[in-house]
Design a protein that fits this description.
Radius of gyration of chain B: 22 Å
Order of helices and strands of chain B: EHHHHHHHHHHHHHEH
Oligomer: heterodimer
Number of helices of chain A: 13
Order of helices and strands of chain A: HHHHHHHHHHHHH
Shape of chain B: globular
Radius of gyration of chain A: 19 Å
Shape of chain A: globular
Helix content of chain A: over 70%
Largest interface: A-B, 49 and 50 residues
Structural class of chain B: mainly alpha
Strand content of chain A: under 5%
Helix content of chain B: over 70%
Number of strands of chain B: 2
């Protein structure tokens, strides 16, 4: 039983950074912008959060710093693609390459250090219950925040006027512009939300999942988050489910020895990447459905002619 | 108020001027960055961008670094022109090195003149095979080639690790996970004795010339341009998108694989887990900085090769972190993309002239 509980907790811990990054990118793509720089924003969040945690000791300031770092990176992407109208694919790649380099530069002073444990939820009476306690009431606080964020995005996109406008901008930016909505401003805001969320996802890696700073520690999770958005067909709850599915695959590799599997660790480490490809293939093969789900203006540059 | 006005045609002079502007801006930003982290900015810039050019060793090392960058970028540029985004060149490079290196190790006891050509074929085939996966999944299942090729890069690194820790490990090696040194006949001939400058440099030059010829004279050059600019028009003209995806990915995969083999056989002389050092990603910057043109890519490859050598020099001379190189490379791409606006738009002062509004209203 303990093993099962441990595995389930492990899945949650592996999934949470993906939840943050994917839900952020989902909102960005709903606004019609394709930001391939998630990996770069995550790694900047990871290093900013870690450095702030070490320097100030405050886990909350660390989260604020991580969100700010991600949002600044996203604003840089916005400057390139929204204001200067450059190619979104190339700019996203640039953001990732730049972020990985800058994070390594900034984090050099912190490599090898470890951060103190992150605060966990503790409800007297509930958190100490067997099985249910650790599974429902004993996680670190970011886990609850990530689920709340998904619920918040569902509510925002589906139930608020602002969410409707954001989706309109993503479906047809020319029409939204004609109606008088500030397309570029809305996209900047969406991008910065996505950046802040990716920053949180990165900080989860360096503050909770393995509280140390290592160069390139995001290891492709930003890219997996991008694939999750496609997998989820741009629906928030499905993105959450997808992230937990991936968490499960990641955890499989850690526990494969416990199941008596005699196989090189490298093969198990390939699983998340191979699973991403498999998922993409399954989801994308139905072209028509993919197209009907994707925001119609996704990735197209917007130039206000009048 | 500043305002953008779309040009009727992309400005050719801006197209060629902006890469130089981007380099200058990157140097300026670098000076600010070094000042911020408390290092002598001018000394750092001079070590990174000029010092390597003052010695024969520096220049030959520059050529050694530029070779994989140019080879990979030339291949990538074909796809980028057509809107086919292979960003997994790093993985194709790794698989090329692994396939070619495995051939070298398999025939360790039977060296001969035939060995090196066979390794080159295996290297190119390894890279092409790895690129064939995103090509197949894109054309058959519509799977996004950006994500698939990138995911495969991580897988390739892990396969290299499995092989170097296992079957390809040096039988007499102590605890190091690395292959044994290739036999002399499996090493790329050196151009200038006493340096690491190998014949792969010439192959990269040939690749540049061949690609320039294909782009200028062959139908394929037209097909990828049309496909990139107007996919619907390309379909109407009867150009096959499927064939183009396959061609672009196989060619860039083969060139990346060849670059990987050259690194293993020319520069290192063995297989090590740390073989992939990011050339596949830097080559993306090289392709854009070179404006997706083979000759431009040659120049851009030399410049980014310089940042590698100079970055190493700065690490030693000024104890700067190795990440400085990737920060510079990232900034360079940023500035270049930001300057692109000058190619397609004019920057105007003030509000819109009444004549333009009237013209549009008609």
């Amino acid at each position: 039983m303990d093993l099962v509980v441990n595995i389930l907790i492990g899945i949650v811990i592996a999934a949470t950074p993906l939840v943050f990054a994917a839900i952020g990118e989902l909102v960005v793509e709903k606004a019609g912008v394709l930001n391939l720089g998630v990996e770069g924003m995550m790694i900047m969040g990871a290093v900013a959060g870690f450095a702030t945690r070490i320097e100030t000791g405050s886990p909350w300031l660390a989260l604020v710093a991580a969100m700010a770092a991600g949002a600044i990176m996203a604003a840089l992407f916005g400057l390139l693609t929204l204001t200067l109208l450059s190619n979104q694919v190339a700019s996203g790649l640039a953001l990732t390459l730049f972020g990985l380099g800058l994070a390594a530069l900034l984090g050099q002073a912190y490599s090898g250090m470890s951060a103190p444990a992150f605060p966990r939820l503790s409800i007297p009476g509930l958190s100490t219950l067997p099985v249910i306690g650790p599974l429902l009431f004993g996680h670190d606080l970011l886990v609850y925040l990530s689920v709340a964020l998904v619920a918040g995005v569902v509510w925002f996109l589906g139930r608020t006027r602002a969410g409707l406008i954001l989706r309109a901008v993503g479906e047809n930016h020319d029409a939204a512009h004609q109606l008088g909505y500030p397309v570029v401003l809305i996209r900047y805001l969406a991008l910065m939300f996505g950046g802040a969320a990716a920053g949180l996802g990165g900080a989860y890696l360096s503050l909770v999942q393995s509280p140390i700073w290592v160069e390139k520690m995001t290891a492709g999770r930003g890219w997996i988050a991008l694939a999750l958005v496609v997998f989820a067909a741009w629906r928030p709850w499905r993105a959450l489910a997808g992230a937990y599915l991936f968490g499960g695959i990641t955890i499989l590799q850690l526990h494969s020895q416990a199941f008596g599997l005699k196989i090189e660790a490298q093969y198990m480490n390939m699983l998340p990447y191979l699973a991403t490809i498999l998922v993409l293939v399954v989801i994308s093969s139905d072209r028509r459905r993919l197209q009907s789900n994707a925001p119609a203006s996704l990735g197209k540059p917007f130039y206000a002619a009048s | 108020m500043l305002r953008l006005e779309r040009r009727k045609e992309a400005s050719r002079s801006m197209l060629y001027a902006t890469p130089f502007l981007a380099v200058l801006l990157t140097m300026a930003a670098g000076i600010v960055l070094f000042a911020l982290i408390g290092k002598d900015p001018l000394r750092a810039i001079s070590i990174i961008f000029f010092q390597p050019l003052t010695s024969v060793y520096g220049v030959t090392e520059l050529l050694v670094k530029a070779t994989p960058l140019v080879l990979i970028a030339v291949g990538l540029s074909l796809g980028f022109r057509a809107g086919i985004w292979n960003i997994g060149a790093e993985g194709q490079y790794t698989m090329g090195a692994l396939a070619g290196g495995a051939v070298a190790l398999a025939f360790y006891d039977q060296p001969g003149l035939w060995l090196l050509p066979l390794m080159c074929v295996a290297g190119a085939a390894g890279g092409a095979a790895w690129a064939a996966i995103p090509a197949f999944l894109k054309t058959r299942f519509n799977a996004n080639e950006i994500l698939v090729s990138l995911m495969l890069t991580y897988v390739a690194g892990l396969i290299l690790s499995v092989m170097v820790f296992g079957p390809l490990r040096d039988p007499e090696g102590l605890s190091f996970p690395e292959s044994r040194l290739f036999h002399d006949s499996a090493r790329l001939p050196v151009l200038i004795s006493g340096t690491r400058a190998h014949v792969g440099i010439l192959v990269a030059l040939v690749a540049v010339l061949l690609t320039a010829f294909v782009l200028a004279r062959h139908r394929f050059g037209l097909v990828i341009r049309v496909l990139g600019a107007a996919p619907a028009a390309a379909r109407f003209a009867g150009f096959s998108e499927t064939a183009t995806v396959w061609t672009c990915l196989l060619v860039s995969g083969a060139l990346s694989g060849l670059a990987g083999l050259f690194e293993a056989s020319g520069t290192l002389g063995q297989l090590v887990p740390a073989l992939p050092v990011g050339y596949g990603f830097t080559a993306i910057i090289v392709a854009f900085l070179g404006r997706l043109h083979p000759v431009g890519i040659l120049a851009a490859g030399l410049l980014l090769g310089l940042t590698y050598i100079g970055g190493e020099g700065a690490q030693i001379a000024m104890s700067l972190p190795s990440a400085v190189t990737s920060v510079f490379q990232g900034m360079l791409l940023f500035f270049l993309l930001a300057m692109d606006v000058l190619v397609n738009y004019r920057i105007r002062l003030g509000s819109r002239p009444a004549a333009a509004i009237a013209a549009e209203a008609e």
